[in-house]
């Protein structure tokens, strides 16, 4: 598993510090996972899978695809790679949630209108006006549905954040316990002293 954790980090072009910051755990913990000294607990595995959309079976065994295959995860990876703002993420996600036939028609008309306005070609713009309301209504309906879905997802994300905070708190406690245990193991054992009379 250590090589697969390193592969995830390298895929996203992150340093160990950046990777640990995203997971909100110590950099040294990541280093110990990558060199194979320690295995991550289930909570950390879940956190890695959630944060980077990694297929848990692949992370644990190396079998299957590295990432979960969903359209949104592809969009998320693209947005992460391009360092998109939250607004840009929402626009890109909303765009790909529109049905392809409507999306294609809408974008072509939008591009045509922008070019027409740029060239001050009022005749071309007025030719498009009668057919735009139907497409606009379809797009507005799609956007309303996307807004509803986004609100649902926001609620789910808040719940995931809450759960992640709980997991991180538990993880910190476990790491402290592990540190204490390791310190105890390092102490030399001193045999009891006998007094001779």
Task: Describe it.
By secondary structure, this protein is mostly helical. The protein folds into 2 domains: 1-69, lambda repressor-like DNA-binding domains (434 Repressor (Amino-terminal Domain), Orthogonal Bundle), CATH 1.10.260; 83-179, no CATH class. It is built from 10 helices and no strands. Helix 6 (71-82) packs antiparallel against helix 7. It is elongated and about 105 Å long.
Characteristics of this structure?
single chain, 197 residues, mainly alpha, elongated, 434 Repressor (Amino-terminal Domain)
Q: How widely separated are the two ends?
A: 59 Å
Mean of pLDDT: 80
Shape: elongated
Q: Give the tally of structural domains.
A: 2
State the helicity in percent bands: over 70%
Q: Given the structure, what is the number of helices? A: 10
Cα-based radius of gyration, to the nearest Å: 26 Å
Q: Name the poorly predicted regions.
A: none
Topology:
Elements lengths: L1 H10 L4 H8 L3 H8 L7 H11 L3 H6 L9 H12 L3 H12 L2 H19 L3 H7 L3 H55 L11
Helix pairs in contact: 2-3, 6-7, 8-9, 8-10
Summarize the structure.
With 197 residues, this protein is mainly α.
